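Batch 3, record 17
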Amino acid sequence: MSVLLWVVLPYVALTVFVLGHVWRYRYDKFGWTTRSSQMYESRLLRVGSPLFHFGILVVALGHVGGLVIPKSWTEAVGVSEELYHLSAVVLGTVAGVATVAGLVILIYRRRTVGPVFTATTRNDKLMYAVLGLTIALGLAATVVANLVGEGYDYRTTISPWFRSIFTFQPEPALMAGAPVLFQLHALSALALFAIWPFTRLVHMLTAPVGYLTRPYIVYRSRDEGRPAAKRGWEPSR
Amino acid sequence: MRVMAQLAMVMNLDKCIGCHTCSVTCKQAWTNRAGTEYVWFNNVETRPGQGYPRTYQDQERWRGGWELNRRGRLKLKAGGRVRKLFSIFANPLMPSIQDYYEPWTYDYDRLFSAPMQADTPVARPRSLISGRPMKISWSANWDDNLAGDPSPDPVLRKVSDQVKLEFERAFMFYLPRICEHCLNPSCVASCPSGAMYKRSEDGIVLVDQDRCRGWRMCVTGCPYKKVYFNHRTGKAEKCTFCYPRVEVGIPTVCSETCVGRLRYIGLVLYDADRVAEAAATPSERDLYEAQKSVLLDPHDPEVIAAARASGIPEDWLDAARESPVHRLIFEYGVALPLHPEYRTMPMVWYIPPLSPVVDVLAKTGHDGEDAGNLFGAIDALRIPVGYLAELFTAGDPEPVRAVLRRLAAMRSYMRRLNLGREPDESIATAAGLRGEQVEGMHRLLALAPYAERYVIPKAHAEQGAQLEELGCSLDYDGGPGMTGPFGEASGLPAPVAVENFHALRERQTGENLDDADELRGRVNLLNWDGKGTPDGLFPRRKK
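Prediction for the assembled complex:
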């Protein structure tokens, strides 16, 4: 069971994530967009959207810090477990609350503003459900662990399991012993990764950082970007 | 010197009757789709008026175009790269659908499905955004012919307040607008994804639909608000200068269908290395001259040599020498750019209207076409001139006055000829022209022969290997033979069928009517049930 949950599922989800994006980029560049609804309504969006996006960016950075960087590294530079934990909980809670607040405003807007609701597809609704669940479970796991218990050191269990996936030497036992809320959070995150390439979340992968370095005016020749005819022989009839 | 070619347009406002034919034909050709209901790549607005979207010219509010920073260098008025990326999650400067107008349709089905009743059933308007019944309160041309209240007009506010009432009685005119296809496009500069580009062959500004990610910064960046957000596909769309048409040498839809024959299309050559420098000219009032100085003289041997070195083909150089646009800007000096103070170097030019002056003069009982009266009136009627100057020369009345004097001289000079009198060279000289130039200008402006109005060189097949889709199979990856994975709106867009436009050109420019024999074996469309494509549905291709 733990092999299925913590080895098979992660690899399936990550494979779908990678191949799904390749497939989508190849066949559906035209559908690769933020599908912004700002034209319809911008008063709520101006509060909710930055709150959610900046929140989730900090949360994502926090996950990189907690999952990717081994505990031994931070201790080598003199960051004690208490200090790490305190900063992670404080920063994580602030960012988490901002994210949830933003998400609540955005979902409220999506439901109540007529044109925005009309423009919402079933795909969007599924994505919102999985995304909301993942965020809620993550926040719940942190809050419960720190309020009820006296904190959970995921850097000795979850983080090594996470890294073991990417070094292709998976250690499911590490994860099997983690608290249930953390397990559920990880599972819903895997579900999110699996549906990611097929939702509007793809816009994250094309965040326009290249804008910072490119020249302002773009010139392009007429030929560029036109689909080329297939090479080779015509099939015989 | 890096010589580049630019397709440019001139519109003669004196001949615009505000019929909106250009807008309607453009809409039917390009924006009759879901998501673009509110979009008019071409619109005609009455000046003074609020414009479309409302008050788009108020750059203190919308912050489109460029401005100079403290060191005198160009910067985007809405903020630079870092600021753009930080406001990417909610663009504070984007017009809402209400600033354009909420598009609607009518509940036509009610007319048929309503039960028998005493009152005639009516088709109520329904919003195309929310689908609900709505009250129509604004549209793209709601303030046509000074309807409603033109006082929020940002240009009008710049002309002093005390003359406003008198001014409203004095005149109005129409201003058709398309994308300016600027030399220094701020929409392109604003696009975070790099999806917008200026075509190096002909300077047309386009959006790559495959690379646009819907960040919406181009809408803010364009001071003319001529980039639109398709709210269904989530991508930006804009006027394409009808590139599939001009590539085969036929004019844009708006030009072709203009009943007043007021649009001119031709090439100009410009020095791409000097654009940024000219756009950064310190004084706004010098920008009109700076913009002219970037354009090159296609008769100058030095320019021709540099153009050849830049790879501009010989027939394009011929077209540049024949260009009506170049003649109207330089030889006759009557075409002015729209809002040069936005520093984008717009390439759709306008001949300001003389008719308000003539009208006012005629109302006071004077001879509106007498040279002396007209010249005097142009100088005396500082209100229309001030308004026109705010539109075309960043508020400098002198160039506008000079243009109006030339147009006035043409009227008076040609009237003498029409009445069989001797030509009066002094009228031409008073406007800085020669008699034969006035006659040439009259031919171009008043007669406006088709072949002189539109001098459009064809795109070169050797440059655009993919222009020809003839004989290319349709079942390549993502080609029209395949349907996208997410329905018809997904997948690669179907390439524009250039051969259709060749056929169109053949039909529009061919001399002979088709032989009656040609119709034998053809399908009568009235009997066609719309299923399949039976033999004879399309005419045979001519050898």
